[in-house]
Amino acid sequence: MLIARKTALGLLGVDVGFSAARKTTAFAWRIGGRIGVEVSRTSWESRRAVLPEGMRFEVAALDAPVLPSSDRAAARACEAVLYRRPFWNRCRPGLSLHGRGLDLRRAGADAAVQIATVVSPTGLARGPEVMPGVPIVEAFPNAFLGVMLPEKIYAASGRPARTAKSDWLYDQALESGALDRVLRHLGWDDPETRTQVETETHHERRAAYVCLLTAGLAHMGEATIVGDPAGGWLWLPPPAMWAPWAVMGLDDAIGRSRLRGFPTASVWSRPTGR
Question: Mean of the pLDDT values across residues 245-272?
Answer without folding.
Answer: 91
